[in-house]
């Protein structure tokens, strides 16, 4: 109501309807929110509940991109590594299939002393190494306002989101440019991911990380079978270029395990050969 958004008002009414349907009243997590909910109760009841499901949304100021095609929903971000409640995650993305999480961001665990201290980035959920992003020359992203994307762009005609993430890495990554391009292809029912890069030196190794909600099957080279809640999808890669491995990330924090269960999975595609210039391509689809 404050910003004059009918879309947000209807979404608020939708959330309120869901809470009512669950059999309890949302008191809010503190007394202020409880009184605000009481104050706006009648206004909320006068609004028709509705969820706006547009084909896309693009916010150039914050570099957030959302795309919906067929059974797929994609969310990607650019920005910089000093945003409010920041994770080191410039260029990362989420992918849902039939409203079920496939490629994910784990989120944030229970707040502790470390969460809002100098030790923030010792927490694994804050590190780029635990987002769907590359390690470049073995190096992850760095924290700070200077570590940011370049040339973020969205093309609604082609349903593509692209950006150069090289600026999110420290100098020891030895990267000139790393342009990541996401393309959601409704006709073929897949998400295409392409990385085109140029390094100053090929002194370490490149490794592609994908965070998964469900346990993957790596038995066939070049294909990772993803099975989120019984849905079978495939993440395809070139087995001549990458060696695939997976790590189990056990969830001991109740705030995370209540969402994801006891385990998450970290897919690691390690480049077999380090080169200064090149491109990598991945697809996720049926």
Strand order of the largest sheet: 9-10-11-12-18-15-14
Overall shape: it is: globular
**How many strand elements?**
18
Low-confidence stretches: none
Mean pLDDT across the residues is 94
Radius of gyration over all CA atoms, rounded: 20 Å
> Termini separation (Å)?
41 Å
Structural class: mainly beta
- How many helices? The count is 4
As a percent range, the share of helical residues equals 10-25%
What is the helix/strand order?
HHHEEEEEEEEEEEEEEEEHEE
Outline the biggest β-sheet.
7 strands, antiparallel
Into which percentage range does the β-strand content fall?
A: 35-45%
Tags for this model:
286 residues, mainly beta, seven-stranded antiparallel sheet, five-stranded antiparallel sheet, 4 helices, 18 strands, 13% helix, 37% strand, globular
Give a short summary of the structure.
Helix content is 13%, strand content 37%.
Show the helix and strand layout.
Layout: H1 6-21, H2 31-39, H3 41-45, E1 56-59, E2 64-69, E3 72-77, E4 80-81, E5 93-97, E6 100-103, E7 134-135, E8 144-148, E9 150-155, E10 160-164, E11 175-185, E12 190-199, E13 207-212, E14 223-226, E15 233-236, E16 242-250, H4 254-260, E17 263-271, E18 277-285
Antiparallel strand pairs: 1-2, 2-3, 3-5, 4-8, 5-6, 7-13, 9-10, 10-11, 11-12, 12-18, 13-17, 14-15, 15-18, 16-17
Account of the protein in words:
The chain is mostly beta strands and 286 residues long. 13% of the residues lie in helices and 37% in strands. The strands form four sheets. It has a seven-stranded antiparallel β-sheet with strand order 9-10-11-12-18-15-14, with no helix packed on it. A five-stranded antiparallel β-sheet has the order 1-2-3-5-6, with no helix packed on it. Strand 14 and strand 15 form a beta hairpin. The radius of gyration is 20 Å and the shape is globular.
């Amino acid at each position: 109501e404050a910003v004059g958004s009918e879309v947000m008002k209807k979404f608020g009414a939708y959330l309120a309807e869901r809470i009512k349907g669950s059999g309890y009243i949302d008191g809010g997590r503190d007394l202020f929110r409880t009184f605000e909910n009481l104050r706006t109760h009648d206004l909320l009841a006068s609004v028709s509940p509705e969820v706006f499901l547009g084909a896309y949304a693009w916010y150039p100021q914050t570099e957030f991109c959302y795309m919906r095609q067929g059974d797929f929903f994609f969310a990607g971000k650019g920005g910089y590594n000093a945003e409010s409640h920041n994770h080191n995650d410039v260029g990362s993305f989420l992918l849902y299939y039939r409203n079920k999480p496939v490629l994910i961001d784990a989120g944030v665990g229970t707040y502790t002393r470390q969460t809002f201290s100098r030790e923030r980035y010792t927490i694994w959920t804050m590190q780029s190494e635990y987002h769907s992003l590359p390690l470049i020359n073995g190096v992850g992203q760095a924290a700070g306002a200077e570590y940011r994307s370049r040339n973020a762009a969205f093309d609604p005609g082609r349903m593509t989101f692209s950006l150069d993430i090289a600026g999110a890495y420290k100098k020891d990554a030895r990267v000139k440019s790393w342009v990541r391009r996401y393309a959601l292809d409704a006709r073929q029912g897949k998400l295409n991911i392409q990385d085109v890069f140029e390094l100053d030196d090929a002194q370490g190794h490149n490794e592609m990380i994908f965070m998964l909600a469900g346990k993957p099957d790596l038995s066939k080279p070049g294909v990772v079978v993803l099975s989120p809640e019984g849905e079978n999808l495939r993440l395809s890669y070139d087995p001549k270029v990458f060696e695939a491995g997976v790590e189990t990330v056990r969830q001991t924090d109740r705030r995370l395990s209540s969402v994801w269960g006891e385990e998450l999975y970290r897919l690691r595609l390690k480049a077999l050969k380090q080169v200064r210039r090149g491109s990598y391509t991945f697809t996720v689809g049926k």
